[in-house]
UniProtKB/TrEMBL annotation:
Superkingdom of the organism of origin: Bacteria
Keywords: DNA-binding, Elongation factor, Protein biosynthesis, Transcription, Transcription regulation
Protein name, entry field: Transcription elongation factor GreA
UniProt keyword Calcium, yes or no: no
GO MF: DNA binding; RNA polymerase binding; translation elongation factor activity
Organism: Pseudomonas brassicacearum
Domain Transcription elongation factor GreA/GreB N-terminal: start-end pairs: 5-74
Segment forming the signal sequence: none
Amino acid sequence: MTKYPMTVQGAKALEEEHAHLTKVERPRLSQAIGEARELGDLKENAEYHAAREEQGMVEARVRDIEGRLQNAVIIDVTTIPHTGKVIFGTTVEIANVETDESVTYQIVGEDEADIKLGKISVGSPIARALIAKEEGDVVAVKTPGGVIEYEIVEVRHV
């Protein structure tokens, strides 16, 4: 079985999505299927087929979430002593060596990644380059535009 690293916040978000799907969406879709069935001939009943298709997608997502949570390794970075080393879950401020432009990312599991929120997947090129490095280290990140060097300015456990 594949283990999925996940932050506490990521696990909570998946649990909330699971609860919404099972407590809100399942009953709504069940009712929609029942109402569509009452309309008569199921062969040409677009409402029925649309509701059944949506039900299938919801059930697939529920199974996916259950599998991920069952195989999750939940890491609470706030309980890990601060060493200045980049590990899963840490928030890292890096500065482009050439431009001195800085950016901050939190390294999270693939389900949690959202670049707009500053969360990058542990499997991303930047995260892979940063993991196990320390504050003050310079890392080279291969990008489509070439190699970019970043200095690790600060590592936070938040």
